[in-house]
Specification:
The protein is mainly alpha-helical. The chain is built from 3 helices and 2 strands. The chain has a domain of about 40 residues: Histone, subunit A (Orthogonal Bundle).
Length: about 100
C-alpha cells in the first residue's frame, strides 16, 4: 500500500508529533513496510482457522515480586537532570 508523506505528517499531527522532512520520508517507508505485512496476512486463507484453538494453552508466566534495595544511589541518579536532596527535580508542566 502506498503511503504519502502528507499522510505521515497528518498521522503525526493526530498523535501530536512533529517530524522533520527526513524523518517523515523515513516514516513513509516504515509505514509502507508495516502495511505490507498486513496485506500478506490479508491474502492468507483463514476461513477454516478456529481463533480459540490455542486459547486454553495460554498460561501467564509472572515472576514473584521481590523488594530489592539498589545500593549505588550515585549510579542510580547519574542520568537525572537535577536533584533536590534525594528527589529528582523536573520542569513544571502545569500552570
Amino acid at each position: 500500500m502506498k503511503i504519502s508523506k502528507e499522510e505521515v505528517i497528518y498521522i503525526a499531527k493526530l498523535a501530536k508529533l512533529r517530524f522533520s522532512d527526513e524523518e517523515a520520508e523515513k516514516m513513509t517507508g516504515e509505514f509502507e513496510s508495516i502495511l505490507g505485512h498486513f496485506q500478506s496476512i490479508d491474502r492468507m486463507d483463514l476461513e477454516n482457522v478456529d481463533p480459540d484453538e490455542f486459547a486454553d494453552r495460554k498460561e501467564s508466566i509472572v515472576r514473584a515480586d521481590e523488594n530489592v534495595v539498589f545500593g549505588d544511589n550515585e549510579k542510580l541518579f547519574s542520568n537525572a537532570g537535577s536533584m533536590r536532596g534525594t528527589f529528582i527535580q523536573v520542569p513544571r508542566i502545569l500552570e
